[in-house]
Design goal:
Layout (H helix, E strand, L loop, with lengths): L3 E4 L17 E5 L5 E2 L17 E5 L3 E10 L18 E8 L5 E6 L13 E12 L4 E10 L8
Parallel strand pairs: 1-9, 7-9
Antiparallel strand pairs: 2-3, 2-4, 5-6, 5-8, 6-7, 8-9
């Protein structure tokens, strides 16, 4: 059975890109050069901006861990979760992007925990899966943060 891949939020990251080309997508204002994530398609959020056109801008693939925590409990409603399915803990990471110097939240890649993400360590954004509905053949895609090996941290 084929699976349909649906982004959790359309336009926030590259779709169907190879892992090395995967990026979060923001927008950059031509007037003040501010970068926005999540993307802004209406107007620049900078209150001091003289005004400008907003254009899609791929964001840095790498950044440094600013903070992280474990999600070890099932969130209450309105979060949608099947109470019959065992809860799987996940790690939430706040990452300061290398060039943009903004902090972006996201889940760590499966198998990556708080102990793997000391503050200041280098991570990279990779494609991820939020959830799957095998019966419907649907995979909801998102982004994950993964540690970068120390030898490749400067690239």
């Amino acid at each position: 059975m084929s699976r349909t891949r649906i982004p959790v939020v359309a336009g926030w990251f590259t779709e169907d890109a190879a892992e090395e080309d995967f990026r979060l997508l923001g927008t950059r204002c031509s007037g003040c050069r501010s970068v926005h994530f999540p993307r802004e398609d209406g107007h620049c959020r900078n209150p001091h901006c003289p005004g400008g056109e907003l254009a899609e801008a791929p964001l840095s693939k790498r950044g440094t861990v600013w903070s992280c925590t474990d999600g070890r409990y099932r969130p209450p409603p309105p979060y949608v979760s099947d109470p019959e399915t065992p809860w799987t803990p996940y790690t939430l990471v706040a990452v300061e992007l290398a060039a943009e110097r903004m902090v972006v939240l996201g889940q760590a890649a499966p198998g990556v925990g708080v102990a793997d993400l000391p503050v200041g360590s280098v991570v990279e954004v990779v494609p991820g899966v939020l959830d799957e509905d095998p019966a419907a053949g649907v995979v909801h895609t998102t982004w994950h943060w993964r540690p970068v090996a120390a030898a490749g941290a400067g690239s």
